[in-house]
Amino acid sequence: MIDFANFERTQRKEDDKSGYDVGLETLIKILPGLQSESASQEEAVGGHDDSIRFEGRMVWKRDQGGRRGEAEMNFLRAAMEEPDLLGLVPALAGYRVKRGEQWLGMTNALSGLSQPAILDIKMGTQTWTPDAPAEKAASQAKKAAESSTGSLGVRVVGGKLLAANGEFTRVGYKNKQDVRNEQELQALLSSFLCSEQLRSSALAKVKAVQAWWAKQTEYAFYASSLLFAYDTKSNDECRIVMIDFANFERISTKADDQSGYDVGLDTLVRVISNLKS
């Protein structure tokens, strides 16, 4: 409790006209719902990951520290100055230290979704930065060549969607359901984007990211993802935001970008465009 500049002493409860009790009753009604929504969102993105905390309209991500943490913070700050990224990148909303740990606060792309379907799709044909040690680069290049990263510029990391039987099913390589080629990607997106509204809204947002990426010459994104999400209660609009910027690099010219992010965007536009209504 704070701010007592206008408190008044009363003789009887009836003398209290503040309506403070109404506010307390409202919070008691609302807070359990927020807790339920946050639990649903944490579960939706693959379990209660200690590095992510959902709090209503905000999501807190543990600062990774060092170069990675600095990179993520720097891009989120830079994105706030890019009008074309409004709604495509979570807005930086705060920074806090809690029990000795630093956390980045961002707008929560899942806020308001009661039963979300979600996909985390890692973008690009190269997930390692140009200055990565040779051993790491070789290891990552081998993994890319053996997965859809190398061939399609996308890889489904994880997620869940509502199956025909009314149960949620998990997908992505982290759930041992890897998508290995374009045919399997098309089948997954056909099931995930299960209405014309979802398909048209998803295509429009991917094209918006593609249009921004094509004209910008400052950033290269390595091991970054696109997050797809919608409410399975309505199936009417697919939200898409860019996430994970710990490995972004500043570039001088487009030729410096070795990520293959554009290959992934081209794949998504092509596959979503070919989905049947």
From TrEMBL:
Keyword set includes Nucleotide-binding: no
GO cellular component, one term: cytoplasm
SUPFAM superfamilies in the cross-refs: SAICAR synthase-like (SSF56104)
Domain of life per record: Eukaryota
GO terms, molecular function: kinase activity
EC number: 2.7.-.-
This protein's UniProt keywords: Kinase, Transferase
Gene3D superfamilies, per the entry: Inositol polyphosphate kinase
GO biological process, one term: inositol phosphate biosynthetic process
Family: Belongs to the inositol phosphokinase (IPK) family.
Name used for this protein in its record: Kinase
Species assigned in the record: Polarella glacialis
